[in-house]
Amino acid sequence: VSTKIKTSKGKLLDFQEYFVELKSEPKISDVIYSESEKADITMEVSNALDEAHKIVIGPSNPILSIGPILAIQNLKEKLTSSSSTYVVSPFIENKAIKGPSKKNFEDLGYKSDITGIKEFYNNIGNYYIVQSGDTDKAENTIEKNILFKSTEDSTNLARYIVDHE
Q1: What span, in angstroms and rounded, lies between the C-alpha atoms of 14 and 152?
Q2: pTM of the model
Q3: pLDDT of residue 140
């Protein structure tokens, strides 16, 4: 899957041109995941998703990192049918943990908070993990430390997810 970025000025850019050369500065009006309709997952990935007790979508950029993966129809269908998919927010206090996530998200009309995350991952996420204080107070929103400053921080979140019922 090749990611193409359409700018607000109508220019179509390859991902590397947008991200590296132009440092993610142009405003995005659309993102095209070229050839995604032809892409498929391997049988091993399909089986792993079918057998998974829990699936975690990490706090990567939803538009540029996770979007191309979700554009693969068979994979998206597997995630949609799962009852235990955890989405870890890429935002803390409406700011990106890293990179242009906030800008990309807002360029495409999403809020850089739990409401935007739930809108983007509609029908995919069953549980949403946000930084303490960033909750929408919904039953499926879980407040935990998602800013990993140490191995212990990430291990604690992983243990929580594994033990969560």
Answers
A1: 37
A2: 0.94
A3: 97
> 76 to each of 29, 70, 122, how far by Cα in Å?
23, 5, 11
- 65 touches 113 (CB < 8 A): no
What is the 3-state composition of the chain as percent helix, strand, coil, each rounded to the nearest 5?
A: 35, 20, 40
Mean pLDDT by 10 residues, the chain (165 residues): 96 96 97 96 96 95 97 96 96 95 97 97 97 97 96 96 94
Tell me, what's the pLDDT at 165?
85
| Contact call for residues 112 and 95 (beta carbons, < 8 A) | yes
Compute CA distances 89 → 119, 126, 128, whole Å. 12, 13, 7
Contact 26, 64 (CB under 8 A): no
Residues 76, 164, 59, 158, CA torsion sign: negative
